[in-house]
């Protein structure tokens, strides 16, 4: 079994100096939300290479310190990513994530379709390690070592042949949660080289997108909501499944 990082296609994507700035979805004194491109890891890996953190100087906006990641997205997942602008903001955001109060909406294009058009996937996950690498496994009985509760709500938004457009709302934040949960339903994400290897020759890139995020940052205000536009590499499949770009923007 190969490490997930060994199965990714191609080198990490480099950005033009101002590209991350052009992807800014929200900004205030505490928080930034950016639209992370697919193919760009949030941290530098063991071998180095482009990553979100190396481009953060463009998002300083006059503050003495760089913003920092409030959470993570997989390298090949695109969309909404939250940054805290200073230590106090990061503590506040960290508490909101820990309490499950941040509403996350993901779009996925999968092969096949779930048995029900909507539902809840309440299946534990655990990490499987061996000398050649690791991956996450569904653990329905919760009996594996270090098994963790994982819950994802989903709804089918459209279909096209053997492809299905699914909206997911993860209620927990486990590693590779949506990817493993959808595989467990029998419909792996298109272009997933780890949990849907048969689909990697049918698509360019992982078809998983952090579409929107809602953050109740201020107690007496409505949650801040940011929406990331559908990424280019998913547009063909999304439109085939019924996505209308102008209406959904």
Could you provide a short overview of the structure?
With 249 residues, the protein is α+β, with helices and mostly antiparallel strands. Helices cover 15% and strands 31% of the residues.
Describe the 3D structure.
Helices cover 15% and strands 31% of the residues. It is α+β, with helices and mostly antiparallel strands and 249 residues long. It has five helices and twelve strands. It has a single domain, classed as Pseudouridine synthase (2-Layer Sandwich), CATH 3.30.2350.10. Strands 1, 2, 3, 4, 5, 6, 9, 10, 11 and 12 form a ten-stranded mixed β-sheet that branches. A two-stranded antiparallel ribbon has the order 7-8.
How many independent structural domains? Answer: 1
SSE topology string: HEEEEHEEEEEEHEEHH
* The CATH topology: Pseudouridine synthase
Could you give the distance between the termini?
A: 40 Å
Average pLDDT for all residues: 90
The radius of gyration computed from the alpha-carbon positions, rounded to a whole number of angstroms, is 18 Å
**How much strand?**
25-35%
* Major beta-sheet overview: 10 strands, mixed
The CATH architecture would be 2-Layer Sandwich
Query: Tally the helices: what do you get?
Result: 5
- DSSP, total strands: 12
CATH class: Alpha Beta
CATH superfamily: Pseudouridine synthase
* Class per helix and strand makeup: alpha+beta
Low-confidence stretches: 1-9
Shape: globular
- Helical amount among residues, as a percent range? 10-25%
């Amino acid at each position: 079994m190969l490490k997930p990082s060994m199965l990714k296609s191609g080198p990490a994507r480099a950005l033009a100096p101002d590209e991350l700035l052009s992807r800014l979805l929200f900004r205030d004194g505490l928080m930034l939300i950016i639209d992370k491109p697919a193919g760009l890891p949030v941290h530098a890996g063991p071998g180095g290479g482009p990553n979100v953190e190396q481009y953060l100087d463009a998002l300083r906006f006059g503050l003495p310190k760089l913003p920092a990641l409030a959470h993570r997205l997989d390298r090949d997942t695109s969309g909404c990513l939250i940054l805290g602008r200073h230590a106090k903001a990061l503590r506040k955001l960290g508490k909101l994530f820990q309490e499950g109060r941040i509403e996350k909406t993901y779009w996925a294009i999968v092969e096949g379709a779930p048995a029900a058009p909507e539902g809840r996937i309440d299946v534990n996950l655990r990490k499987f390690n061996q000398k050649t690498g690791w991956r996450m496994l569904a653990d329905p009985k919760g009996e594996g070592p270090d098994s963790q509760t994982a819950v994802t709500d989903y709804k089918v938004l459209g279909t096209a042949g053997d492809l299905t457009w699914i909206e997911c709302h993860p209620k927990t934040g486990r590693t590779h949660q949506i990817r493993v949960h959808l595989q467990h339903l029998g419909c792996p994400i298109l272009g997933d080289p780890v949990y849907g290897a048969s689909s990697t020759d049918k698509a360019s890139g992982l078809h998983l997108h952090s579409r929107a995020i809602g953050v109740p940052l201020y107690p007496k205000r409505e949650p801040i909501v940011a929406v990331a536009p559908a990424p280019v590499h998913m547009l063909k499949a999304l439109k085939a499944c019924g996505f209308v770009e102008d209406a959904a923007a």
